[in-house]
Design the sequence.
């Protein structure tokens, strides 16, 4: 992860965790460092998150079991680092914008849901909450934040179908603010960010705080979902599905990662080529 300070009021953050931008310990360490810098930067108004990969914005959480420290250690709020990061980002006085190219699924989707705004490439963005198809449930805000944006029925469609959704559909559902032609995405987001950066911080902070009060799930509900997610990891049917995902190429450059949603209904079939 790298940070480019366009001005004291406007920063850009680049996710760069090849090959797939899997959300792992390294990503959360970078986000924790970023939040500390944000807290110490009173001139900062807006931050834009983008990806070095054109194919994967943030693929999903690391399911290998090798980077679970961020789920156990506590952040400055006292919550575990994962939840601490997302809650502090949402409640920060700094406006956060996700500029989405590539695939963003699972915990990646839950990260962009924790951002204040989301703009996606019409030609090159796919969003998904595939957890149910993998035998688990969203555990970092998907079941809490999505219904507030999309409504109950569409949130259930997204979560229970565990499928991939294109940018135009995500826009219609309210998952993202706008779907834009890829060649217009950079210019639009940069113009918006610079506009916000030109305003005084105090009215931005006050307005965001007031909107937060009527539009965010409670921390207790977020923590309840996180605990429920941990419980699913011990289910035998979940372990069977996760094993099948790795056999098909999860966290590698593979057809599974490219077309995650297409594989899930047939995940336990013997021949992945049937997909």
Sequence:
């Amino acid at each position: 992860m790298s940070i480019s300070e366009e001005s004291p009021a406007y920063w850009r953050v680049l996710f760069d965790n090849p090959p797939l931008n899997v959300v792992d310990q390294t990503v959360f360490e970078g986000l924790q460092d970023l939040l500390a810098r944000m807290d110490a930067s009173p001139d900062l108004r807006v931050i834009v998150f983008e990806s070095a990969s054109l194919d994967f914005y943030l693929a999903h959480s690391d399911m290998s079991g090798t980077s679970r420290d961020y789920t156990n250690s506590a952040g400055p709020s006292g919550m575990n680092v994962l939840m601490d990061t997302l809650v502090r980002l949402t409640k920060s006085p700094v406006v956060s914008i996700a500029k989405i190219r590539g695939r963003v699924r699972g915990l990646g989707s839950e990260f962009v849901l924790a951002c204040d705004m989301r703009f996606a490439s019409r030609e090159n963005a796919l969003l998904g909450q595939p957890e149910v198809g993998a035998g688990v449930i969203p555990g970092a805000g998907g079941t809490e934040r999505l219904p507030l944006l999309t409504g109950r029925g569409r949130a259930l469609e997204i979560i229970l179908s565990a499928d991939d959704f294109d940018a135009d559909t995500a826009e219609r559902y309210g998952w993202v603010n706008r779907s834009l032609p890829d060649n217009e995405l950079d210019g639009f987001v940069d113009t918006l960010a610079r506009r916000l950066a030109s305003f005084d911080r105090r009215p931005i902070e006050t307005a965001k705080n007031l909107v937060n009060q009527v539009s965010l799930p409670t921390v207790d509900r977020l923590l309840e979902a996180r605990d429920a997610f941990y419980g699913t990891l011990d289910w035998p049917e979940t372990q069977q599905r996760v094993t099948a995902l790795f056999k098909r190429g999860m966290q590698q450059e593979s057809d599974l990662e490219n077309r995650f949603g297409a594989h899930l209904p047939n995940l336990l079939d013997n021949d992945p080529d049937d997909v």
